[in-house]
Amino acid sequence: MYNNYTETVSTYDQGLRSYLLQVFNYMTMALGISGVVAYTVGISPELMMAIWGSPIKWVVMLAPLGMAFFMSFSFSSMSTHTAKICLAVFAGVMGLSLSSIFAVFTMASIAQVFFISAATFGTTALWGYTTKRDLSNMGSFLMMGLIGIVIAGLVNIFLQSSALQMVCSALGVVIFVGFTAYDMQQIKDTYFNVDGDDRDKAGVFGALNLYLDFVNIFTSLLQLMGDRK
């Protein structure tokens, strides 16, 4: 009986590790796409002028938000293959949006904040994976905070208030650190509650959530700590 129990636990652990590795591979792929696109555009004065010096900038700024909502609402009807394609496209669009940081912040500052963000994200994700505390109650609270930040951010596009930007950035770090732990626990729970192709698809969307958590932690910390040109 004990041997059967330990074999079952070992199988679950190995399967869970494999599942989480797949999720983080999807996330890393998305971050890689965003990084390449953002860097390629950010170091090209011609591309920067074509995007950020024209009305196209509004499309680039708002497209990631619209696409994120589209993917969330289409989750149930979307195949795993389609979800992977959408994640890659979304990462590319987000990369275009992130290219603006190269016009505002120094390269050294961007690299420094990236590694700080990675350490913050990794520590929080590990805690979300290992904690025995049920974090499900955090979801609604974090979502309300996210909606507030999105609305304030959209308003600030027109107000251009540095004080409001700093407040949104500080709250963004707190909220998305919380989302990282919450999403990590949700991904872990999904492994035990979903099977087959639905589990694979859920892994793609789990990677999307972690990707968004990391990007928002990074951009929020960059606003707070980054050295401006």
How confident is the prediction overall: mean pLDDT?
88
In total, the number of strands is 0
Question: What sort of overall outline do the alpha carbons produce when their principal axes are compared?
Answer: globular
Measured as a percent range, the helix fraction is over 70%
Along the chain, the helix and strand elements come as: HHHHHHHHH
Quote the beta fraction: under 5%
Low-confidence stretches: 5-10
Span of the ends, CA to CA: 66 Å
Radius of gyration: 19 Å
Whole-number count of domains: 1
Describe the largest sheet.
none
Structural class computed from helices and strand pairing: mainly alpha
What's the total helix number? 9
Which oligomeric state applies? single chain
How do the helices and strands line up, and which of them pair or pack?
Layout: H1 2-42, H2 45-52, H3 56-73, H4 80-98, H5 101-104, H6 107-130, H7 138-159, H8 162-193, H9 196-225
Helix pairs in contact: 1-4, 1-9, 3-4, 4-9, 6-8, 6-9, 7-8, 8-9
